[in-house]
Amino acid sequence: MGRAGAVMIPEEGRRAASRSLLAAERDRRQVPGPSRSWPDITLDDAYAIAAMGIASKLAQGAELRGRKVGLTSRAMQRSSAIDEPDFGVLLADMFFEDGARIARDAYCVPRVEMELAFVMGRSLVGPVTRAEVLAATDHILPAIELIDARAEDPRTVFDTVSDNGAAAGVILGSDKMRPTDVDLRWVGGILESNGAVEETGLAAGVLGHPADAVVWLADKLAGFGQTIEAGELVLTGSFVRPVWAEAGTVIVADFGDWGTVHVSFT
């Protein structure tokens, strides 16, 4: 997933942290995050730990299908004491169809967010501009992201990055937007849980424009010698706060003219 940068955690320490988080995901039981054992952990360490976990899954036959960008709102960045987004990897087995019924017990502490998903028509190598991202985008889908923290509280941004950005699932709607169809900043959403409105927001909350999350990602990946490939899907970050997904919860993400996305937890 990338090359290592500043080394604060020795290689075996990084591998131990990766194994611990993978075991937490497998056993559906949270573990102390790597920042607990390594208070001086850096983002380079965290991305290296995440890369080890993804490499292990790919070696076992997993398929990379896309990426996710997180911490794209100023409020979330401030709450995490960080001044930039983070990213994770989306694997094929994380994807669900609209209306999916998902077992809550398959996760540690599942929550959901609503986002726009960019499906790339051609590859992007950073640095890029917003105009280049929009030109490279085949279409955009409404989506619910399922997030799950395998690192227990108190949790830092370094623990979340190490944990592949808390990536757990993606539920995609079917109503396609073209990048030229609408001013993406004004795409709005209502997130309901069991019929009650929990959150509302505008896509402008994502770095001012959701395409700018893809700009950031392409530029960040270039530093790791990586590319956003044609056909990959990029989740651009939530423009509402996460909502809990307990058993018996029915979630509806209403994107107005751009359709709704449904998921229920059993």
Notes on the structure:
The strands form 2 sheets. Strands 1, 2, 3, 5, 6, 7, 10 and 11 form an 8-stranded mixed sheet that branches. With 266 residues, the chain is an alpha+beta fold. β12 and β13 form a beta hairpin. Helices cover 26% and strands 29% of the residues.
Number of helices: 7
Gyration radius (Cα, Å) is: 17 Å
Helix-strand category? alpha+beta
Low-confidence stretches: 1-5
Major beta sheet summary? 8 strands, mixed
Quick tags:
alpha+beta; 8-stranded mixed β-sheet; 5-stranded mixed β-sheet; 13 strands; globular; disordered N terminus
Topology:
Elements: H1 11-27, H2 34-37, H3 43-59, E1 64-70, H4 74-79, E2 86-91, E3 95-97, E4 100-102, E5 110-120, H5 130-136, E6 137-148, H6 157-162, E7 167-172, E8 188-193, E9 196-202, H7 211-222, E10 233-235, E11 243-244, E12 250-254, E13 260-265
Parallel strand pairs: 1-10, 3-7, 4-13
Antiparallel strand pairs: 1-2, 5-6, 5-10, 5-11, 6-7, 8-9, 8-12, 12-13
Helix pairs in contact: 1-3
Quick structural overview:
With 266 residues, the chain is of the alpha+beta class. The chain has 7 helices and 13 strands.
